[in-house]
Amino acid sequence: MIIRILTLFPEMFEGPMGSSIVQRGKDKGLLDIACINIRDYADNKHKKVDDYPYGGGAGMVMTPQPIFDCHEAVTKAFGEGKRPRTIYMTPKGRHFNQAMAGELSQEQELIFLCGHYEGIDQRVIDNLVTDELSIGDYVLTGGELAAMVVIDAVARLIPGVLSQSESYEEESIQSGLLEYPHYTRPSSFRDMDIPEVLISGNHKNIDLWRRKMALRLTLERRPDLLENFPLTKQDKKLLEAIKDEAQKKD
Ligand code: ADE
Question: Which residues, judged by CB distance below 6 Å to any ligand atom, belong to the binding site of ligand 1?
Fold first, then answer.
């Protein structure tokens, strides 16, 4: 996958995009990520990239010319006829989730556009942007951190980036439930013992315990996820037990 990030702050990406799983994807030749500085494409003497909003109001708006030219150069480099997904990070966008990460991980090329100031000229959005994405209901100072979140979530889903042992099949959200708790050695630490079932050697019971923990956590923290979840007969029984136990506690 080729990812190009159009930004006014390329230096922000140096740490996160140069380490961990993203770096591994790059080392394995599965990922090619580069930042392009929008300012380099400003055709005015002072390399100005923003201006006052028409109609008045607070803040500045990023001007269309450097973004159009920058986007054109990047798209051209991908080859004739390519119209890559161009993702604009904005709190006004659709909420990013794991399903979208999966969908984006199938693309061969992605362009991320990071805005600053009050936003970007609407003509950029109308003509170049294919997706507007938000990472949550809060306002960041720019789209850079949001783009890094999306890129990290997408990169780890590209086949071959994660090793078998890092398999993400059972992970939180991926399965539709929040994940059960994990424990490692020692089995007793400062008088805190791990749940006995985990050292019982009975894998059926271990699976059942994990399923119950996942259902309990999801019920407590994200009951909305259970609304669309295809509960099995056993899940329903476990949920009843969980609710009974909670009632007894109260
Ligand atoms: N830019 C500023 N805030 C943002 C958010 N919450 N999500 C995506 N992009 C943003």
Answer: 89-91, 134-136, 138-140, 143, 146
Angle, helices 144-155/20-27, rounded to nearest 10 degrees: 60
Kindly compute the dihedral angle of the four CA atoms of residues 69, 72, 73, 76, in this order, to the nearest 10 degrees.
Answer: -160
Alpha carbon of 179 to ligand 1 centroid (Å)? 27
Whether 131 and 215 share a structural domain: no
**Do 42 and 137 share a domain, yes or no?**
yes
- Strands, E, within 80-237: which ranges? 85-95, 109-114, 119-120, 131-134, 188-189, 192-193
Residue 119 lies in a domain: yes
**Single-letter amino acid code for the residue at 2:** I
pLDDT tens, 26-64? 899 999 999 999 999 999 999 999 999 999 999 999 999
Rg (CA), the chain: 23
CA angle 20, 26, 27 (to 5 degrees): 85
List CB contacts of 139: < 8 A, sequence separation 6 or more.
91
- Mapping DSSP to helix (H, G, I), strand (E, B) and coil, where does residue 104 land? helix
CA-wise closest residue to 111 among 17, 1, 196: 1
Residue among 139, 148, 151, 152 to mutate when testing ligand 1 (max atoms within 8 A of CB): 139
User: Which structural domain, as residue segments, surrounds residue 107?
Assistant: 2-165
**192 plus 146 within the same structural domain:** no
What confidence category does residue 167 fall into, taking pLDDT thresholds of 50, 70 and 90?
low
Q: Which tops the pLDDT comparison, 191 or 170?
A: 191
- CATH code of the domain in which 199 resides: 1.10.1270.20
